Amino acid sequence: MTHDKPRIGLVGSQGAYGRWLRRFFEERMGLQVLGRDPHGDTTLSERALIEGIDVLIFCAPIRETPAVIRRYVDRAAGIEREQLWLDITSIKAAPVAAMLTSQAEVVGLHPMSAAPKAATLRGRAMVVCEARLHRWRAWLEQFLVASEADCVRADAERHDRVMALVQGMVHATHMAQGAVLRELAPAVGDFDGIRPFSSVGYELDMAVTRRILAGNPAIYQDIQFENPYVAPMLERLAAHLDTLRDLVRSGDDAARDELREKLLTQSRTYVGEQAVAEGSYAFERLGYLLADLHEPRYISVFLPLDRPGSLRTLLSVFEQRGINLDSIHSSRSAEGELLFRIGVARDTHATVLRDAMRAIEHEGIGRVVDAAGVSEAS
Ligand SMILES: NC(=O)c1ccc[n+]([C@@H]2O[C@H](COP(=O)([O-])OP(=O)(O)OC[C@H]3O[C@@H](n4cnc5c(N)ncnc54)[C@H](O)[C@@H]3O)[C@@H](O)[C@H]2O)c1
Ligand SMILES: O=C(O)C(=O)C[C@]1(C(=O)O)C=C[C@@H](O)C=C1
């Protein structure tokens, strides 16, 4: 048993998370990684994979994972006794129960985001379901710290109940929104025609809907079908929408009162004044952020992280040219690089902006990765 430098085995090594985990373990933790995937990584048999590793991680499709795990238990036939088995499936009870039929130590994990572009899970939650953990505890802690995820502990049952709300409900309502738009938007200018009319709420909801439509359909399908707590949640969701429809159809004052009482007042009391106020303020801040991100003139600059004062040097470029700044946001590029996105006043001349961009590059202050409103016509 090697707890210092365990060899990692990935089941589903060619998938989005399998590839991310390989890079994470090799590059961030300096560990050797073996894998198997029926699509593109079949050099090792299932038995040979188990023989070659110390920690086995299942990152296969949700629907198939419990059966895949049971097959690995069968193939292992006891040689897994000293090993740690993990999975990252979005549902926890069935995979964890299947792993517990092995003799390995067992922990279920669920990172609360798609495989990120960044090298770690910084800023993302990860649910940790410790099911049978003894000698591997210290290494697991080391791995969780290296992941930089915000870890939250729960048993598998509670995880699945919570996920019926955090994922099942959110995905269901946005998939339904996508379907309603598909049916009703063509009559009023289609998706693009509606965009200029956006409220902040619509913009945020459409970001979620489009994220779901951009993702792996099997995941959204399986989260609805494989989590036993989703069906009862859908019953409640449908019941409330049915009530709302009936109240709106009836249209009288009693119906208005009932809507207000059941869908606003009671929920407001339940959530509590402070949480309501915090959420409302978070919405406002997101609104300002979206407004800044929609500003037509900006420059996005990658700044080397290891140079104190580099932001001040960058800002001096704008100061020297008399350019007024509307906003500064630090964010991540699609590749995960730290960027500063500088929104500049709309009346800034494009020539002056181009000069600022040249200075940023030529003086080695940073690298301009994106810009808008800098062409002659703008
Ligand atoms: N994508 C996300 O948003 C996300 C987030 C958190 C957790 N997860 C979980 O990660 C797991 C993998 O998700 P993904 O996004 O990498 O999906 P993916 O479809 O990209 O990868 C799944 C991989 O499993 C392989 N596979 C299929 N059948 C297999 C089998 N019988 N044995 C071994 N491998 C098999 C596939 O060939 C594929 O390469 C899922 O359980 C999912 O719930 C995904
Ligand atoms: O697209 C993302 O980044 C997600 O957060 C994906 C998402 C989610 O929508 O809840 C989907 C499945 C995973 O289990 C975790 C997170």
From TrEMBL:
> Is NAD set as a keyword in this record?
yes
- Residue ranges annotated for the ACT domain, each copy included: 299-376
Sorted alphabetically, which keywords does the UniProt record give?
A: Amino-acid biosynthesis, Aromatic amino acid biosynthesis, NAD, Oxidoreductase, Tyrosine biosynthesis
* Pathway participation: Amino-acid biosynthesis; L-tyrosine biosynthesis; (4-hydroxyphenyl)pyruvate from prephenate (NAD(+) route): step 1/1
| Cleaved signal peptide residues | none
Q: Which residues form the Prephenate/arogenate dehydrogenase domain?
A: 6-278
Broad enzyme group: oxidoreductase
Q: Does the keyword tRNA processing apply?
A: no
Reactions that this protein is recorded to catalyse: prephenate + NAD(+) = 3-(4-hydroxyphenyl)pyruvate + CO2 + NADH
Q: What is its EC number?
A: 1.3.1.12
Q: Which domain of life is it from?
A: Bacteria
Protein name in UniProt: Prephenate dehydrogenase
Name the species this protein comes from.
Answer: Dyella humi
